[in-house]
Amino acid sequence: MKTYKYPLLDSQSQIFENVKKYFLEAESLPPACYKDTEFYNAEIKNIFLKSWLFVGREEKLPCSLSYFVIDVLGESVIITKNADGEIKAFHNFCRHRGARLMDGHGVTKQFRCPYHNWGYSHNGDLIGAPDMKKTENFCMKDNGLVKIKIENWAGFLFINFDSDPAPLLEHLGDLPKTLEKYDLIKMLCIKETHHRVACNWKLYTEVDMEDYHAPTVHPLSIGRQVFPRQPSRGEYETTFYENPKTVSVVPTDEGPVFPHIEGLSGKAATGTYFTMIYPSFFLVTTLDSCWWINKTPINETNSAVDVGYCFPKSTVAREDFEEVSRRYIERWDRVIREDNNICERHQASINSRWCLPGRLSFHEEVVNAMNKWVLERVMPKEVVSDV
Description:
The chain is an alpha+beta fold and 387 residues long. The chain has two domains: 53-160, 3-layer Sandwich (Rieske Iron-sulfur Protein), CATH 2.102.10; 174-370, Naphthalene 1,2-dioxygenase Alpha Subunit, Chain A, domain 1 (Alpha-Beta Complex). It has eight helices and 16 strands.
């Protein structure tokens, strides 16, 4: 039996040498990378707390003074739109003694602490602190909510816990140009679903970006697809499936479908892009709609999987939208159930003491690219080389 010395992050470790090879010569990550606590903690520190993380669509803030709360990576965050329409993000704790401020979503004039009634504006300013007049050297201006970086691309909101990250558009590179014809800013997310899946976050990102499993895992909902890796400049991977039909309904569905996105042209009008924005945001942009799957680690072997289904505003306004979209949603929900099941089955077996890395097929080039991306950020620099 092949065994690995611990810790995985030993700067002298050779266990990743086969991962770093050209993908048709390479192996998958060692199974320990999907369950080891030290490796997981290094991912959180060096990847997730330094990356742009998707938190929701802009339409979740329908008006000024609206907000929603998201819990991610053991942190709680308030996303809000202030009176001027600016979108802000703050840590969801009171500056008094740290009590949780808000839950859920809604519209409110101010954020009030349920413990001692301190109040905050949608700009994060402390505007009310009862009975603090006798406290020496207490300054209201110094006790506002702790800010978090937030940026908006095409209606998709991303936060970054790093205090000085590169701008989101720099992270995305040329992706906005590649996807510009889909006019994503004019989409509406009409449904979200939320799942807890018993698998490491990387297993789910990998299943999203390879077509090898589709005929087996999705024989009716997807069937056989081949979508080769596309050139990219930025912190993302994308593949393209050339097909003149939408992928948002099952291949055998002969029912009515929605019209193509207005103004869709060029390569985008000939098929579907499957895109992974690092570290874990998956976006499918097809001829008439788009959908996203966001994976967030809960712990070494469990992930939050959030899914959103989007259509152009003009499509949502159609009289037949509810009837036709029902088939789209049924197909998307089915694919998610199938991926959830296979990822949990994969994690259960990869937990074996005897499980070994495996060789990759020509369908899995992006899996290898994503494995290398993770290693380059988690491992000491001298361990990972460019291949």
